Amino acid sequence: MDGQIESAYVRFFDDPAEPEHALLGGKCSSLVTMTAAGMPVPPGFAITTAHFDAVLERSGAAAAIASALEHLDPEDVTAVDAASAEIRDLICSFEVPTELREHVVRAYQALQARFDQQVPVAVRSSATAEDLPDASFAGQQDTYLWVRGESSVLEHVRRCWASLYTSRAILYRLRNGIPDEGLSMAVAVQKMVNARASGVALTLDPLTGDRSKITIDSSYGVGEMVVSGQVTPDNHVLDKVVLAVVSETIGDKHAELVPDAGQCQLVEREVEAERRQRRCLTEAELVAVATLAKRAEKHYRCPQDVEWAFDADLPPGQDLLLLQARPETVHSAVPRGVPLAAATAAPAVPAAPPTAASAFSFSALTRASTPGRG
Protein backbone atom coordinates (compact mmCIF):
# COMPACT_ATOMS: atom_id res chain seq x y z
CA MET A 1 0.00 0.00 0.00
CA ASP A 2 2.77 2.44 0.91
CA GLY A 3 4.44 1.79 -2.45
CA GLN A 4 1.18 2.66 -4.24
CA ILE A 5 0.91 5.92 -2.34
CA GLU A 6 4.53 6.73 -3.12
CA SER A 7 4.00 6.16 -6.85
CA ALA A 8 0.87 8.35 -6.83
CA TYR A 9 2.64 11.27 -5.14
CA VAL A 10 6.23 10.98 -6.44
CA ARG A 11 7.49 9.64 -9.76
CA PHE A 12 11.17 9.37 -10.74
CA PHE A 13 11.94 10.15 -14.38
CA ASP A 14 13.42 6.69 -14.91
CA ASP A 15 10.41 4.89 -13.43
CA PRO A 16 9.33 2.40 -16.15
CA ALA A 17 5.60 3.12 -15.77
CA GLU A 18 3.86 4.91 -18.63
CA PRO A 19 3.76 8.70 -18.19
CA GLU A 20 0.32 10.15 -17.48
CA HIS A 21 -0.08 13.79 -18.47
CA ALA A 22 -2.85 14.30 -15.91
CA LEU A 23 -0.52 13.08 -13.15
CA LEU A 24 2.75 14.67 -14.32
CA GLY A 25 1.83 17.83 -16.20
CA GLY A 26 3.41 18.83 -19.48
CA LYS A 27 7.04 19.27 -18.48
CA CYS A 28 7.40 16.21 -16.25
CA SER A 29 5.52 14.02 -18.69
CA SER A 30 7.98 15.04 -21.40
CA LEU A 31 10.98 14.41 -19.13
CA VAL A 32 9.71 10.92 -18.27
CA THR A 33 8.98 10.15 -21.92
CA MET A 34 12.40 11.34 -23.10
CA THR A 35 14.16 9.40 -20.36
CA ALA A 36 12.31 6.22 -21.40
CA ALA A 37 13.34 6.88 -25.01
CA GLY A 38 17.00 6.84 -23.98
CA MET A 39 17.63 10.55 -24.41
CA PRO A 40 20.21 12.22 -22.15
CA VAL A 41 17.93 13.79 -19.52
CA PRO A 42 19.43 14.82 -16.14
CA PRO A 43 17.99 12.61 -13.38
CA GLY A 44 15.18 13.77 -11.17
CA PHE A 45 11.63 13.15 -10.00
CA ALA A 46 8.17 14.61 -10.31
CA ILE A 47 6.01 15.66 -7.39
CA THR A 48 2.70 14.74 -8.98
CA THR A 49 -0.59 16.54 -9.40
CA ALA A 50 -2.09 13.96 -7.00
CA HIS A 51 0.23 15.33 -4.32
CA PHE A 52 -0.70 18.95 -5.12
CA ASP A 53 -4.42 18.13 -5.12
CA ALA A 54 -4.13 16.25 -1.81
CA VAL A 55 -2.28 19.19 -0.24
CA LEU A 56 -4.98 21.64 -1.36
CA GLU A 57 -7.81 19.42 -0.13
CA ARG A 58 -6.29 18.58 3.25
CA SER A 59 -5.26 22.18 3.92
CA GLY A 60 -8.69 23.49 2.99
CA ALA A 61 -7.25 25.71 0.26
CA ALA A 62 -9.07 24.13 -2.69
CA ALA A 63 -12.45 25.69 -1.85
CA ALA A 64 -10.90 29.10 -1.18
CA ILE A 65 -9.09 29.06 -4.53
CA ALA A 66 -12.26 28.11 -6.41
CA SER A 67 -14.13 30.94 -4.71
CA ALA A 68 -11.44 33.50 -5.57
CA LEU A 69 -11.48 32.49 -9.26
CA GLU A 70 -15.26 32.48 -9.59
CA HIS A 71 -16.83 35.11 -11.89
CA LEU A 72 -13.51 36.73 -12.88
CA ASP A 73 -13.70 38.95 -15.96
CA PRO A 74 -10.58 38.87 -18.21
CA GLU A 75 -11.12 42.59 -18.91
CA ASP A 76 -10.97 43.44 -15.20
CA VAL A 77 -7.23 43.13 -14.66
CA THR A 78 -7.41 44.76 -11.23
CA ALA A 79 -9.76 42.04 -9.96
CA VAL A 80 -7.55 39.35 -11.50
CA ASP A 81 -4.48 40.84 -9.79
CA ALA A 82 -6.28 40.83 -6.44
CA ALA A 83 -7.43 37.21 -6.84
CA SER A 84 -3.92 36.17 -7.87
CA ALA A 85 -2.34 37.80 -4.82
CA GLU A 86 -4.91 36.23 -2.48
CA ILE A 87 -4.41 32.73 -3.89
CA ARG A 88 -0.61 32.89 -4.00
CA ASP A 89 -0.42 34.19 -0.43
CA LEU A 90 -2.66 31.33 0.67
CA ILE A 91 -0.55 28.66 -1.06
CA CYS A 92 2.68 30.08 0.34
CA SER A 93 1.35 30.20 3.91
CA PHE A 94 -0.80 27.15 4.66
CA GLU A 95 0.70 24.16 6.46
CA VAL A 96 1.51 21.15 4.30
CA PRO A 97 0.46 17.92 6.08
CA THR A 98 3.49 16.11 7.49
CA GLU A 99 2.81 12.84 5.68
CA LEU A 100 2.62 14.58 2.31
CA ARG A 101 5.75 16.62 2.99
CA GLU A 102 7.65 13.44 3.85
CA HIS A 103 7.01 11.95 0.41
CA VAL A 104 8.96 14.83 -1.11
CA VAL A 105 11.73 14.65 1.48
CA ARG A 106 12.25 10.92 0.90
CA ALA A 107 12.36 11.38 -2.87
CA TYR A 108 14.88 14.22 -2.55
CA GLN A 109 17.09 12.08 -0.31
CA ALA A 110 16.87 9.18 -2.78
CA LEU A 111 17.93 11.48 -5.63
CA GLN A 112 20.90 12.79 -3.64
CA ALA A 113 21.92 9.20 -2.79
CA ARG A 114 22.70 8.69 -6.48
CA PHE A 115 25.70 11.04 -6.20
CA ASP A 116 28.94 11.09 -4.21
CA GLN A 117 28.13 14.48 -2.74
CA GLN A 118 25.12 16.77 -2.49
CA VAL A 119 24.17 18.25 -5.84
CA PRO A 120 22.08 21.38 -6.48
CA VAL A 121 18.74 20.90 -8.20
CA ALA A 122 16.39 22.82 -10.44
CA VAL A 123 12.79 23.05 -9.21
CA ARG A 124 10.49 23.44 -12.22
CA SER A 125 6.73 23.90 -12.58
CA SER A 126 4.79 21.38 -14.69
CA ALA A 127 1.15 22.37 -15.06
CA THR A 128 -1.41 20.04 -16.63
CA ALA A 129 -2.37 22.72 -19.17
CA GLU A 130 1.14 23.49 -20.41
CA ASP A 131 3.10 22.23 -23.43
CA LEU A 132 -0.05 21.31 -25.33
CA PRO A 133 0.15 21.14 -29.14
CA ASP A 134 -2.39 23.96 -29.62
CA ALA A 135 -1.28 26.39 -26.89
CA SER A 136 1.89 27.71 -25.34
CA PHE A 137 2.31 28.39 -21.64
CA ALA A 138 6.09 28.78 -21.78
CA GLY A 139 7.37 31.09 -19.07
CA GLN A 140 4.01 31.40 -17.28
CA GLN A 141 4.94 29.25 -14.30
CA ASP A 142 8.09 29.41 -12.20
CA THR A 143 11.44 27.68 -12.40
CA TYR A 144 14.09 27.94 -9.69
CA LEU A 145 17.73 27.07 -10.27
CA TRP A 146 20.62 25.92 -8.07
CA VAL A 147 18.43 25.00 -5.10
CA ARG A 148 20.17 23.19 -2.22
CA GLY A 149 18.82 21.36 0.84
CA GLU A 150 15.48 19.85 1.87
CA SER A 151 13.94 22.99 3.35
CA SER A 152 14.84 25.10 0.33
CA VAL A 153 13.44 22.50 -2.06
CA LEU A 154 10.16 22.38 -0.10
CA GLU A 155 9.92 26.18 -0.14
CA HIS A 156 10.52 26.39 -3.89
CA VAL A 157 8.04 23.60 -4.63
CA ARG A 158 5.44 25.70 -2.84
CA ARG A 159 6.40 28.73 -4.96
CA CYS A 160 5.95 26.65 -8.11
CA TRP A 161 2.48 25.66 -6.95
CA ALA A 162 1.64 29.32 -6.33
CA SER A 163 2.82 30.29 -9.83
CA LEU A 164 -0.12 28.38 -11.29
CA TYR A 165 -2.13 31.43 -10.23
CA THR A 166 -0.08 34.39 -11.41
CA SER A 167 -2.16 37.16 -12.97
CA ARG A 168 -0.62 36.35 -16.33
CA ALA A 169 -1.52 32.67 -16.11
CA ILE A 170 -5.08 33.35 -14.93
CA LEU A 171 -5.66 35.89 -17.72
CA TYR A 172 -4.25 33.56 -20.36
CA ARG A 173 -6.61 30.79 -19.31
CA LEU A 174 -9.59 33.15 -19.19
CA ARG A 175 -8.89 34.64 -22.61
CA ASN A 176 -8.30 31.26 -24.23
CA GLY A 177 -11.29 29.49 -22.69
CA ILE A 178 -9.16 27.10 -20.62
CA PRO A 179 -11.15 26.06 -17.52
CA ASP A 180 -9.65 26.06 -14.04
CA GLU A 181 -11.69 22.99 -13.12
CA GLY A 182 -9.34 20.03 -13.13
CA LEU A 183 -6.29 22.26 -13.49
CA SER A 184 -3.37 21.06 -11.42
CA MET A 185 0.38 21.39 -10.97
CA ALA A 186 3.19 18.87 -10.79
CA VAL A 187 6.75 19.95 -9.99
CA ALA A 188 10.04 18.60 -11.34
CA VAL A 189 13.04 18.33 -9.01
CA GLN A 190 16.02 17.67 -11.25
CA LYS A 191 19.81 17.57 -10.94
CA MET A 192 21.14 20.98 -11.91
CA VAL A 193 23.37 21.12 -14.98
CA ASN A 194 26.67 22.99 -14.65
CA ALA A 195 26.22 24.49 -18.11
CA ARG A 196 29.24 25.86 -19.94
CA ALA A 197 26.98 26.59 -22.95
CA SER A 198 23.26 26.15 -23.48
CA GLY A 199 20.32 27.34 -25.45
CA VAL A 200 17.31 26.37 -27.52
CA ALA A 201 16.77 24.59 -30.83
CA LEU A 202 13.73 24.47 -33.10
CA THR A 203 13.33 21.79 -35.72
CA LEU A 204 12.14 24.35 -38.25
CA ASP A 205 13.00 27.91 -39.26
CA PRO A 206 10.82 30.10 -36.99
CA LEU A 207 10.91 32.98 -39.50
CA THR A 208 9.42 30.97 -42.37
CA GLY A 209 8.18 27.68 -40.93
CA ASP A 210 10.60 25.80 -43.20
CA ARG A 211 10.77 22.29 -41.75
CA SER A 212 13.91 21.42 -43.72
CA LYS A 213 15.91 23.59 -41.31
CA ILE A 214 16.99 23.46 -37.66
CA THR A 215 17.52 26.74 -35.82
CA ILE A 216 19.86 26.84 -32.81
CA ASP A 217 20.36 29.73 -30.39
CA SER A 218 23.36 29.29 -28.10
CA SER A 219 25.15 31.27 -25.41
CA TYR A 220 27.52 30.77 -22.50
CA GLY A 221 26.41 29.49 -19.09
CA VAL A 222 22.92 28.51 -17.98
CA GLY A 223 20.23 28.92 -20.63
CA GLU A 224 17.82 31.11 -18.66
CA MET A 225 19.49 34.21 -20.08
CA VAL A 226 18.72 33.00 -23.61
CA VAL A 227 15.12 31.99 -22.86
CA SER A 228 14.40 35.27 -21.04
CA GLY A 229 16.02 37.39 -23.76
CA GLN A 230 18.66 38.89 -21.46
CA VAL A 231 21.47 38.14 -23.90
CA THR A 232 21.73 38.11 -27.68
CA PRO A 233 22.85 34.55 -28.43
CA ASP A 234 24.59 33.09 -31.44
CA ASN A 235 21.98 32.10 -34.01
CA HIS A 236 22.63 29.21 -36.40
CA VAL A 237 20.46 27.75 -39.16
CA LEU A 238 21.36 24.20 -40.23
CA ASP A 239 20.11 22.01 -43.05
CA LYS A 240 18.11 19.25 -41.36
CA VAL A 241 19.36 16.49 -43.66
CA VAL A 242 23.11 17.08 -44.01
CA LEU A 243 23.41 19.14 -40.77
CA ALA A 244 25.57 21.78 -42.47
CA VAL A 245 25.39 25.40 -41.28
CA VAL A 246 23.36 27.40 -43.81
CA SER A 247 23.65 30.76 -42.07
CA GLU A 248 24.66 32.16 -38.71
CA THR A 249 24.87 35.38 -36.73
CA ILE A 250 27.34 35.68 -33.85
CA GLY A 251 25.54 37.33 -30.94
CA ASP A 252 27.01 39.68 -28.37
CA LYS A 253 26.67 37.16 -25.48
CA HIS A 254 27.72 39.89 -23.07
CA ALA A 255 26.92 37.95 -19.87
CA GLU A 256 26.61 34.40 -18.56
CA LEU A 257 24.86 32.81 -15.59
CA VAL A 258 27.34 30.53 -13.79
CA PRO A 259 27.63 28.85 -10.36
CA ASP A 260 29.56 30.57 -7.60
CA ALA A 261 30.94 27.91 -5.25
CA GLY A 262 31.48 30.38 -2.42
CA GLN A 263 27.93 31.76 -2.53
CA CYS A 264 26.38 28.38 -3.46
CA GLN A 265 24.21 30.07 -6.08
CA LEU A 266 24.15 31.19 -9.68
CA VAL A 267 25.65 34.60 -10.42
CA GLU A 268 25.69 36.75 -13.53
CA ARG A 269 29.20 37.32 -14.88
CA GLU A 270 30.40 39.52 -17.73
CA VAL A 271 31.80 37.65 -20.72
CA GLU A 272 35.20 38.92 -21.84
CA ALA A 273 35.45 40.52 -25.29
CA GLU A 274 37.39 37.68 -26.92
CA ARG A 275 34.73 35.07 -26.09
CA ARG A 276 31.90 37.36 -27.16
CA GLN A 277 33.30 37.62 -30.67
CA ARG A 278 33.43 33.89 -31.38
CA ARG A 279 30.98 31.03 -31.48
CA CYS A 280 30.25 29.45 -28.14
CA LEU A 281 29.80 26.06 -29.86
CA THR A 282 32.12 24.17 -32.18
CA GLU A 283 30.93 22.77 -35.50
CA ALA A 284 30.78 19.29 -33.94
CA GLU A 285 28.73 20.58 -31.00
CA LEU A 286 26.24 22.28 -33.36
CA VAL A 287 25.81 18.98 -35.18
CA ALA A 288 25.32 17.18 -31.86
CA VAL A 289 22.58 19.63 -30.80
CA ALA A 290 20.86 19.37 -34.18
CA THR A 291 21.00 15.58 -34.03
CA LEU A 292 19.45 15.58 -30.56
CA ALA A 293 16.68 17.94 -31.71
CA LYS A 294 15.98 15.63 -34.68
CA ARG A 295 15.69 12.67 -32.27
CA ALA A 296 13.09 14.58 -30.26
CA GLU A 297 11.15 15.48 -33.40
CA LYS A 298 11.23 11.89 -34.65
CA HIS A 299 10.03 10.62 -31.28
CA TYR A 300 7.14 13.08 -30.98
CA ARG A 301 6.39 13.17 -34.74
CA CYS A 302 6.03 16.95 -34.88
CA PRO A 303 8.32 20.03 -34.86
CA GLN A 304 9.97 20.51 -31.48
CA ASP A 305 11.17 23.38 -29.33
CA VAL A 306 14.13 21.94 -27.40
CA GLU A 307 16.17 23.25 -24.46
CA TRP A 308 19.68 21.78 -24.17
CA ALA A 309 22.98 22.32 -22.35
CA PHE A 310 26.58 21.13 -22.36
CA ASP A 311 27.55 20.12 -18.80
CA ALA A 312 31.07 21.22 -17.82
CA ASP A 313 31.26 18.35 -15.28
CA LEU A 314 30.81 15.60 -17.90
CA PRO A 315 33.36 14.26 -20.43
CA PRO A 316 33.12 15.18 -24.13
CA GLY A 317 30.67 12.96 -25.94
CA GLN A 318 28.55 12.58 -22.79
CA ASP A 319 28.14 16.24 -21.90
CA LEU A 320 25.17 17.22 -24.11
CA LEU A 321 21.95 17.03 -22.08
CA LEU A 322 18.32 17.47 -23.06
CA LEU A 323 16.46 19.68 -20.59
CA GLN A 324 13.09 19.91 -22.27
CA ALA A 325 11.25 19.24 -25.52
CA ARG A 326 7.83 20.65 -26.28
CA PRO A 327 5.75 20.99 -29.45
CA GLU A 328 6.48 24.11 -31.49
CA THR A 329 3.18 25.98 -31.47
CA VAL A 330 3.49 28.91 -33.89
CA HIS A 331 4.10 27.46 -37.36
CA SER A 332 3.04 23.91 -36.50
CA ALA A 333 -0.59 25.00 -36.14
CA VAL A 334 -0.60 26.44 -39.68
CA PRO A 335 -1.39 24.04 -42.58
CA ARG A 336 1.52 23.62 -44.96
CA GLY A 337 1.33 26.01 -47.89
CA VAL A 338 -0.70 28.62 -45.98
CA PRO A 339 1.23 31.86 -45.22
CA LEU A 340 1.59 32.50 -41.51
CA ALA A 341 0.19 36.04 -41.84
CA ALA A 342 -2.97 34.76 -43.55
CA ALA A 343 -3.46 31.96 -41.04
CA THR A 344 -3.14 34.26 -38.04
CA ALA A 345 -5.07 37.29 -39.31
CA ALA A 346 -7.96 38.43 -37.09
CA PRO A 347 -8.04 35.45 -34.74
CA ALA A 348 -11.33 34.73 -32.97
CA VAL A 349 -9.52 34.44 -29.62
CA PRO A 350 -6.17 35.92 -28.63
CA ALA A 351 -3.41 33.86 -30.19
CA ALA A 352 -1.05 31.87 -28.01
CA PRO A 353 2.24 33.68 -27.49
CA PRO A 354 5.31 32.12 -29.10
CA THR A 355 7.18 29.55 -27.07
CA ALA A 356 10.18 30.81 -25.15
CA ALA A 357 12.55 29.41 -27.73
CA SER A 358 10.69 30.69 -30.78
CA ALA A 359 10.42 34.14 -29.22
CA PHE A 360 14.19 34.40 -29.20
CA SER A 361 15.19 32.50 -32.33
CA PHE A 362 13.77 34.80 -34.95
CA SER A 363 17.14 36.36 -36.00
CA ALA A 364 18.83 39.54 -34.83
CA LEU A 365 16.22 41.76 -36.53
CA THR A 366 13.24 40.16 -34.84
CA ARG A 367 15.06 39.75 -31.55
CA ALA A 368 15.68 43.49 -31.34
CA SER A 369 11.93 44.18 -31.16
CA THR A 370 10.93 41.21 -28.97
CA PRO A 371 10.44 41.92 -25.24
CA GLY A 372 12.18 39.71 -22.72
CA ARG A 373 10.19 36.93 -21.09
CA GLY A 374 10.51 35.02 -17.85
How would you describe this protein?
The chain is α+β, with helices and mostly antiparallel strands and 374 residues long. The chain contains 14 helices and 13 strands. It has two domains: 2-191, ATP-grasp fold, A domain (Dna Ligase, domain 1, 2-Layer Sandwich), CATH 3.30.1490; 195-368, D-amino Acid Aminotransferase, Chain A, domain 1, CATH 3.30.470.20. Helices cover 36% and strands 22% of the residues. The protein has a six-stranded antiparallel sheet. Helix 4 packs antiparallel against helix 5 (77-91). The two termini are 41 Å apart.
**Radius of gyration, in angstroms, nearest whole number:** 20 Å
For the secondary structure, the number of strands is 13
Can you tell me the CATH class of the largest domain? Alpha Beta
Task: Give the averaged pLDDT, no decimals.
Answer: 86
- Our measurement of the CA-to-CA distance between the termini, rounded to an integer number of angstroms, reads 41 Å
User: CATH-wise, what's the superfamily of the largest domain?
Assistant: ATP-grasp fold, A domain
- Count every helix, treating DSSP H or I runs of 4 or more residues as helices: 14
The biggest beta sheet is recorded as: 6 strands, antiparallel
pLDDT < 50 stretches: 131-138, 338-374
What level of helicity do the residues show? 25-40%
CATH architecture heading of the largest domain: 2-Layer Sandwich
* Residue share in β-strands: 15-25%
